[in-house]
Amino acid sequence: MTVSTEFGGTSRPEAGGESSPEKLLAPVLSAYWDEDRSWTLDVYRRHEGYEGLRKALAMSPDDVIAYVKDSGLRGRGGAGFPTGMKWQFIPQGDGKPHYLVVNADESEPGTCKDIPLLFANPHALIEGIVIACYAIRSEHAFIYLRGEVVPVLRRLHAAVHEAYAAGYLGKNVLGSGLNLELTVHAGAGAYICGEETALLDSLEGRRGQPRLRPPFPAVAGLYACPTVVNNVESIASVPAILNKGKEWFRSMGSEKSPGFTLYSLSGHVANPGQYEAPLGITLRQLLDMSGGMRPGHRLKFWTPGGSSTPMFTDEHLDVPLDYEGVGAAGSMLGTKALQCFDETTCVVRAVTRWTEFYAHESCGKCTPCREGTYWLVQLLRDIEAGKGAMSDLDKLADIADNINGKSFCALGDGAASPIFSSLKYFREEYEQHITGGGCPFDPAKSTAWADHRTEVNA
Amino acid sequence: MTTTPSEQGVSLGMPQLPAPDYPDDVRARLEADAREIIGRYPDSRSALLPLLHLVQSEEGYVTRTGMQFCADMLGLTTAEVTAVATFYTMYRRKPSGDYQVGVCTNTLCAVMGGDAIFSALQEHLGVGNGETTGDGKVTLEHIECNAACDYAPVVMVNWEFFDNQTVESAKRLVDDLRAGAEVQPTRGAPLCTYKETARILAGFPDARPGAVEASGSAGPASLIGLRLAKGEQPEPRIVHPRGEERRDAAPQDESPADHLSAHDAPQKTSASDPAHPAGPVTEEGE
């Protein structure tokens, strides 16, 4: 392996070699984002758009569910639950309306895959929605888009309009007898609404607070009716599976984590951005092909799937980034948001900021999360400011332990993750803040422009 | 509030009077919009979030009149509407500027320069978090992760993306906004006012010609993996997207000494911060 993770931009993988991007990457959803007007129906159809839907409509709804289940597609929103199984849980013949709700409330710190996907290729989602609604026998679907992304909202409005006009939505879709309404719903700023039951409460016009389960949304979801809640990328992956076949899908990734997915590289890397690849690629491979860390710096810590997934260090560069691989290494694949921080970054500062985020975004329903995140912030601020005591480190771990697994939803677990993992890998750095009476790092050195100054001054 | 400062702590004061109604013509117009919104949902209450965006598009923030209107349209109490309006950060509860400048200070953007940008803008504009410049043009806020981490540090103006910002580019951005110059986001459409943005959020598509097309299919970072997979070399990372700025421009007006303690000190972002609008000490319905 090359050394590019240590000194970025110095090595280029040889063409055709093991680390050649042509072989390691597999653009499917992102395959033509570089085309002019890629978000339009015309361009989508030029790339076999809505062909998957035609194939699905030729099957029975139950067969579509079985097909998606057999493909092995797992949820791309964080938890990795099999998509087809979620669809199968919807009770059929119950006489109640069924709903599909797409979770486009992408807010997990570090996560930035659904927004570019919807900006460049919204029809992949809409086609997936029609297929899913046909399968679960739903006549009304919703896209719950976070409100803070108006450029994406514009393109969703336009794409839904196009899809209605072309007969992919509305009455009797493509002559199949399926009637389908699709409503684009803009949220109003609340991280917690990415949690599926909080999202449902929010979509019902309430405060976004998680519900106690059971009952699960598949039984009593939106308006207490059977509801599937799927992530954008999960649904958008369905048309290609139907069109190109489950065997094609299973030819990528591993037995338990098949298929392709979007990896989002960000932070102190030479080339941040979206990299669509089969599941199981490693961070080392991604960095090798993309120019590594920024020149002259080395990887210090990173998250495999957003801030709620326990952080990794440079020991974990070769962990296969699939559900099992990351799980076995003590974290979670999450949203594949690979936030990379180099040696200029203070881990206490990073964790403090994330914890402030969780405290701000805690909905307040469950006491351990609401109160625990508050006290974590107080302790962390003291430590970062050099006013902490050694006993605070155990107290941090203790409070995190009292949040983890003790609230309705995973926000509390997410808040505990950076605490546990940073104490595990960087306890010494916390201690330095306490013994040294403050933060030993210069934040100016970790900015995107820090090294340009050095060049100028040299 | 109906109490004057001299009454505070002495008397409980009078109960708050009902909010004044919209003028008839405004109400008629909003009712037509509201009915269209309500028609999108199987259950009317689902229309509450878009209706709050709608009333925000009328007055620039969610007023008591606006909340009363939502309650009337949906058959809810004002308390039920207030409970929702105060939960979500995108609903403003006081008059604010035409342009909301949101600097991401979640960890990744903060580390990459968001903290430096936010503190520089506070100083440059002479306003604090959530405050508006005297000319009513710019409201400065720090925001949470906006799903653009591959473009860090990110600034949002009226929820359009301004990617890969520097201290210098962000200062020029707010200067342009205050001067009324046309400002083009990195990803998104030419800026409209906050009220017009709120109307799009209420579910009324942006009718301006070219708004959907603006800024092309995808930003450079979104395409980087695709280009590599096609055997192309990635384009050099764009650090300064806005115009002709120099690479060395940003750092000159901030000395490392300013940063060491001052800006690395955690921002007051948690709900424990009494100054924070979402904090526990904020009175409901205020």
Automatic annotation (TrEMBL), chain A:
Top-level class of the enzyme under EC nomenclature: translocase
Names of the cofactor(s): [4Fe-4S] cluster; FMN
Keywords recorded for this protein, A-Z: 4Fe-4S, Flavoprotein, FMN, Iron, Iron-sulfur, Metal-binding, NAD, Oxidoreductase, Quinone, Translocase
Matches recorded under SUPFAM superfamilies: Nqo1 FMN-binding domain-like (SSF142019), Nqo1 middle domain-like (SSF142984), Nqo1C-terminal domain-like (SSF140490)
Reaction equations catalysed: a quinone + NADH + 5 H(+)(in) = a quinol + NAD(+) + 4 H(+)(out)
SMART domains: NADH_4Fe-4S
EC number: 7.1.1.-
Biological processes per GO annotation: cellular respiration
Protein name: NADH-quinone oxidoreductase subunit F
Keyword Nucleotide-binding: no
Domain of life per record: Bacteria
Role this protein plays: NDH-1 shuttles electrons from NADH, via FMN and iron-sulfur (Fe-S) centers, to quinones in the respiratory chain.
GO MF, one annotated term: FMN binding
Domain NADH-ubiquinone oxidoreductase 51kDa subunit iron-sulphur binding, chain residue ranges per copy: 348-393
InterPro entries per record: ComplexI_51kDa_subunit, NADH-UbQ_OxRdtase_51kDa_CS, NADH-UbQ_OxRdtase_suF, Nuo51_FMN-bd, Nuo51_FMN-bd_sf, Nuop51_4Fe4S-bd, Nuop51_4Fe4S-bd_sf, Soluble_ligand-bd
Disordered, as annotated region: 1-21
Similarity comment: Belongs to the complex I 51 kDa subunit family.
Automatic annotation (TrEMBL), chain B:
Keywords on record: 2Fe-2S, Iron, Iron-sulfur, Metal-binding, NAD, Oxidoreductase, Translocase
Signal peptide positions (record): none
Annotated Basic and acidic residues bias: 229-266
KW Transferase (keyword) present: no
SUPFAM superfamilies linked to this entry: Thioredoxin-like
InterPro entries assigned to the protein according to its UniProt record, in alphabetical order: NuoE-like, NuoE_dom, NuoE_N, Thioredoxin-like_sf
One of the record's GO molecular function terms: 2 iron, 2 sulfur cluster binding
Source organism superkingdom: Bacteria
Region named Disordered: 1-20, 227-286
Record field: catalytic activity: a quinone + NADH + 5 H(+)(in) = a quinol + NAD(+) + 4 H(+)(out)
Pfam families referenced in this protein's UniProt entry, alphabetically: 2Fe-2S_thioredx
Cofactor(s) the protein needs: [2Fe-2S] cluster
Protein's job: NDH-1 shuttles electrons from NADH, via FMN and iron-sulfur (Fe-S) centers, to quinones in the respiratory chain. The immediate electron acceptor for the enzyme in this species is believed to be menaquinone. Couples the redox reaction to proton translocation (for every two electrons transferred, four hydrogen ions are translocated across the cytoplasmic membrane), and thus conserves the redox energy in a proton gradient.
Similarity section: Belongs to the complex I 24 kDa subunit family.
Protein name per its UniProtKB record: NADH-quinone oxidoreductase subunit E
Organism in which the protein naturally occurs: Streptomyces jeddahensis
Species lineage: Bacteria, Bacillati, Actinomycetota, Actinomycetes, Kitasatosporales
